[in-house]
TrEMBL record:
Species for this entry: Halomonas campaniensis
UniProt xrefs under Pfam families: SlyX (PF04102)
The protein's name in its UniProt record: SlyX
InterPro entries for the chain: SlyX
Coiled-coil spans in chain: none
Compositionally biased tracts (Basic and acidic residues): 73-82
Length: 82
């Protein structure tokens, strides 16, 4: 019960498969480009995050060095009756 296709049917199937393959290759290339762009953005954001972390650390150290009370603020002191 094998059903043999005519040469015209085979040509049509082959053309359909080639068309699908071309479409999938196009979308694969598009997705690859998107991944590369996202990776670049992530790298930049990680670099920016590191710079911000370093700046915060520097500001915190500068604030502690300039604080005459050794890092304690008046609002941090709790009266003895609390």
């Amino acid at each position: 019960m094998t059903h043999e296709l005519s040469p015209a049917d085979l040509a049509q199937r082959l053309e359909s498969l080639e068309s699908r393959l071309a479409h999938q290759e196009h979308w694969l290339d598009t997705l690859d480009q998107a991944v590369v762009q996202q990776e670049r953005r992530l790298d930049k954001l990680e670099q920016l995050s590191g710079l911000m972390r370093e700046r915060l650390r520097e500001q915190h150290q500068a604030l502690q060095a300039s604080d005459p009370q050794g890092g304690q603020r008046p609002e941090d002191n709790v009266p003895p009756h609390y």
